[in-house]
Amino acid sequence: MRLTVVNPNVSDELTRRIAGAAAAVAPQDVDVLGVHPSGGVPSVESHAEEVVAAAGVLEQVRAHDATSDAFVVACFGDTGVAAAREVASGPVVGMTEAALMAACLVAHRFTVVTLPTRTRAHSERVVRALGLEHRCTVRAVDVPVAHLESGSTHLLETFVAESRAALELDAAEAVVLGCAGLADLVDPLQAELGVPVIEGVAAAVGMAVGLHRMRLGTSRASSFAAVPALPEVLFP
Amino acid sequence: MRLTVVNPNVSDELTRRIAGAAAAVAPQDVDVLGVHPSGGVPSVESHAEEVVAAAGVLEQVRAHDATSDAFVVACFGDTGVAAAREVASGPVVGMTEAALMAACLVAHRFTVVTLPTRTRAHSERVVRALGLEHRCTVRAVDVPVAHLESGSTHLLETFVAESRAALELDAAEAVVLGCAGLADLVDPLQAELGVPVIEGVAAAVGMAVGLHRMRLGTSRASSFAAVPALPEVLFP
Amino acid sequence: MRLTVVNPNVSDELTRRIAGAAAAVAPQDVDVLGVHPSGGVPSVESHAEEVVAAAGVLEQVRAHDATSDAFVVACFGDTGVAAAREVASGPVVGMTEAALMAACLVAHRFTVVTLPTRTRAHSERVVRALGLEHRCTVRAVDVPVAHLESGSTHLLETFVAESRAALELDAAEAVVLGCAGLADLVDPLQAELGVPVIEGVAAAVGMAVGLHRMRLGTSRASSFAAVPALPEVLFP
Amino acid sequence: MRLTVVNPNVSDELTRRIAGAAAAVAPQDVDVLGVHPSGGVPSVESHAEEVVAAAGVLEQVRAHDATSDAFVVACFGDTGVAAAREVASGPVVGMTEAALMAACLVAHRFTVVTLPTRTRAHSERVVRALGLEHRCTVRAVDVPVAHLESGSTHLLETFVAESRAALELDAAEAVVLGCAGLADLVDPLQAELGVPVIEGVAAAVGMAVGLHRMRLGTSRASSFAAVPALPEVLFP
Amino acid sequence: MRLTVVNPNVSDELTRRIAGAAAAVAPQDVDVLGVHPSGGVPSVESHAEEVVAAAGVLEQVRAHDATSDAFVVACFGDTGVAAAREVASGPVVGMTEAALMAACLVAHRFTVVTLPTRTRAHSERVVRALGLEHRCTVRAVDVPVAHLESGSTHLLETFVAESRAALELDAAEAVVLGCAGLADLVDPLQAELGVPVIEGVAAAVGMAVGLHRMRLGTSRASSFAAVPALPEVLFP
Amino acid sequence: MRLTVVNPNVSDELTRRIAGAAAAVAPQDVDVLGVHPSGGVPSVESHAEEVVAAAGVLEQVRAHDATSDAFVVACFGDTGVAAAREVASGPVVGMTEAALMAACLVAHRFTVVTLPTRTRAHSERVVRALGLEHRCTVRAVDVPVAHLESGSTHLLETFVAESRAALELDAAEAVVLGCAGLADLVDPLQAELGVPVIEGVAAAVGMAVGLHRMRLGTSRASSFAAVPALPEVLFP
Predict the structure, then answer these.
(1) Rounded distance, CA B132 to CA E4, Å?
(2) For a tag on chain D, would you pick the N or C end, based on fewer CB atoms within 10 A?
(3) With an 8 Å Cβ cutoff, is D142 touching chain B?
(4) Are the beta carbons of A108 and E128 separated by less than 8 Å?
């Protein structure tokens, strides 16, 4: 099985780290490929950047569809996932929806800790699309995505503080990391908090592999029916 | 006051008709300009086309921001509206949110009749973002947007039939037209049904003018804070 | 266009100030008339006073319907609005629903700051009728409506404090003033907070004008069908 | 214990029949008194009539508070109940909320069959205030309240037909009679349908007696704090 | 009328106190019997213990059905209530649902104070089944049920502190005691707080008596149809 | 990895078929074991049978915990899953929650087709616990579980009919099979309908394997903290 993980920003380093996080949990017979758009934004921290990033996700899904059994979109907020479902032949899983579902399976209530603060609305959009407002709160640390470029363990204290607030004030029983590129934070944060810490790319890999093994793909019945002729969007 | 109405598809004819519908309800001292992206899709009937159209909305909002007091986005589903709010200096109103709000002011329950059928999910997304599921149902007629190119009165019977089903089965008391380019259907449909028929571009014009007169613009506090440097997305 | 603004309490001074706030945002060709019931309550701060005030709203809507193109009801909680819709020939807009809708157009989340504290339930009733619990919180300052009689700028500090709590604790991005008669607070509060401050009477004027220009009135299909013969309720 | 049942319309005959329905289920040591306003409307079939009726409910609650341990408001839609809670010394129970609660105790899903059709919004208001949309649908038969003046058994067939539709199409397992004055319909309808048929006045009596025996009254903490000086509203 | 109150744990002392609380509010012609399972758990503080307790509730309902007109299940979380409805000939009322309904009748917002902390999810399950999330918060004090064995007045201070937090932070206007066996706390807590304090067993008695007087039982239409042959579950 | 699939009824044949369905989608390095309780009910078609079945699930989870890395509970309605989470060392996944999550990943709206009709409430309980009412309807065919004993392909026509109703009337885009033991229906039903058909045991296997690979287990923070000493429940 070939699983393509699309990082919607243009960072090589983040793409490599995200693909690594995916490969770490994928079964041995799954070949993980990490890709990013040919142009666009260095990070997705606004609705405007989401527009550019979604065009990039579409570009990559079209480019790799013939050789991919399934896609994971590695952007918290699941930018471009609905569109990718129309274009990809196999299943497409967003890291946000996957993380929230995994959290439901291990905790009664949980909290997303996303970044930066202004993107809380992006997380809330997915929480509400799934109907999970009664089980999930959204918190944020005000760190730009750029700070994750070379790893995220330097953010441990920041995440511990916000997560502890979630455990105490929101009755959270698990924490969802609200950004791709935080896989190296899972173990130390879990050690500090003593509750499950959920990384969405890893969760999405599990679900994409599961769907593939069930031979399930996106329904073509209506909302995600194939789109015959779509013009390119170009990046300068 | 200069009000720019962005049609997110590339049809000159539809843009002209949409701008006409906007101008028809705008106060005399409001100058209405209709624009469309420099490239993209002939119609927005899928999530993938929404991605392209949103890039086009961004392009036009950036191009006209310096000379516009407010924007209306004329696409049912409000594609690109959140992003436009970050980029525009003045308020931005989507035709879908405006139509649903106007419907709330004249009816207890109401129904969107959108087109084509596969886009019901786009309408439902806005209905849910506003929390109006308890008052609004979404129905569709399976007509491609292309059929509206030169007017929509030939669709009267189709809309009458679906709207009557809404009045009888959904207890609807008003009908929201679920696509731009249907302004010429308002009067004949209203005459047939005897209930308010709401056209979203017109509704959005009223709300954009109202916000402007109150000197209200998008909050920069968090979710829609300005986005400093956004790369272009190009259309071939 | 003649727009009649009904203040449901019996204060001449508040009626004058509310009508002034309405006129300030109305287009030049709109003639704004402020009225209040012939009897009733000096302020609406309880459900019982709402009953009296609603009778007063009905009285005034019946008295002025022949000469009014549209009505605005200037009571936070939208007391009597549903009844007024059955009786008025033109559209009727409540200041609460209008304020919440305007807030949706400029902010992802927002907070009503109402007064006095015991009336939070009245605001929450409208928030829930519109389905906006996921975007709107309700806070209060414990000031009686009587304190607004001769202006509200002396309440600036109180509103700043409660609004700051909303921005920090509720992730609000805009503030809705939860009472009529606070129009003079909009500018200083906005200056202090740096986020949009929304006054409902002004918002309702914009929406009523917009509906009128679209020639939209209340649906007579079912819930708001005309009421043929309604007895008077008298004020001693 | 003295329990006062307020019929908010001015029909002597309906008041007598409603009080009889209440007395039939009240324990022996409960003295049931039926009252109606000194003026107002012959029936409550619109929001405008609700305004008048609510004034009448207030009038009667004030008149009988000194001699009543609890009140039941016998109007589907619970007109005036919130206001009555502020004015009455003892607990106040609306027939609609009581009927919905009783239905929850005997059925997973259920349906209100109200009358006339235009009042569905009134039932839905209470359903939503209680949060029961997921368990309760609202249907209507288009019969004016006046037709209940001298009994309702002639409506049996009409109610059987609408109730059967509820059982089949809405998965209802019980039926709530959506109007006062239908007590004589309970037994024949139950016999026809084979499912519980719930009459709200009877349900409200049980709950008012229960609250009284627990010595529970309306909280004065905030929303329903006492209202010191309320002017009269007069009926001509 | 014979009313059987099932305490789902095996404590004789708690059963006696719960039956006493029920008898204290029951009308004179109601004979209250308190029972507990022949085996099982000393307290119900987890989902696993709920499984055992539900088996015990079923055992007792089957054992006493022939001689009972109605049942009250005295476990916060309403463990086994749905199953008991299928097995009992008369109505079955859970203490949690009854307490929440009673709270709705006397307060706009209210708070459950349950124990121990880990059981908040059990309370929330019932709050959500009734749709009351918008009016009810759930708090907890971290006291094991065993501490209630010989009365609960020693917990007064703990409950006062948590309840005061609810009144201030959650805008609660009444408090629901989230465990059986707290009846002796009602009066002192109410005296301290000045708001209604609701004990669920007492509330359930009132509702069970009310249903019985209306001759209402569980609907057999679908979800709670009778279960013909159910094997015993044994306790060692 | 050892994955234990618990069938909560006592049928050897169904257990074998369920384990087979699980093994068919499990990766090669996953050893699937199918078990059922030592006593209890032949099928779970009522809330009362759920009580017995939950005791059986607990029995089996305790018996196999030492040798299992994860559990799947193969009962539509997820009977006993919350309790099993407290008792199992590794993750526990219910087939219902897993099926609904998988459906969310491949369709905008979908429908559960469960059996028999009386168990719709059990499916709705899980739909609501996940907050998916806006995307998922529940339908039923009135077939007893016993009819699945030796396979389910004879039910193809029945399922096709109900599923077609879902596609047309509920706008469903995928179908969830609402019972264990229907794995042999997936392919023929999918062939007939042309939309994804989701079998919950297979979906649960994918998610359990995914959680295991992420080394995620149930949070012990509060709701699902370990339960120290739980008495046995015996089956005669």
Answers:
(1) 44
(2) C
(3) no
(4) no
